[in-house]
Amino acid sequence: MTYLLLRQLHTVLAAITIGGFLLRGYWMLSGSEKLHRPLTRIAPHVVDTAFLFSGIAMLVLSSLNPLTQSWLLAKFAGLVFYVLLGSVALRRGPTRPIRASALLAAGLAFLYVVGVALSKSPASWLDYPA
Fold this sequence. Notes:
By secondary structure, this protein is mainly alpha-helical. The protein is 77% helix and 0% strand. Helix 1 packs antiparallel against helix 2, helix 1 runs antiparallel to helix 4 (96-119) and helix 3 (70-92) packs antiparallel against helix 4.
């Protein structure tokens, strides 16, 4: 698979990931039973795994090392925050206000990661060309 096709796949998977996360967040806030359906619990793991593997494949194809590229390290750190905050938002948050706050923070972490990916800078959107 060429790098450009892999990048397109990665971008589509990113959109599916955040869309699914926000939908599950809405279901959580509204108390919907849809959040507990088997497909709702399994599909995000499949999509997120494909998303992660497409990112790793791009690293391998481009011979980039996240430990020597500050923007890749920042992107990885943002991804870790997104996952941890998402876990609080959808599962581990003890109260609805905490879950809602974690949902918002996870969304912001995801936006930070997108900004880093587009700008190739840890400054994210602050360093994005106008």
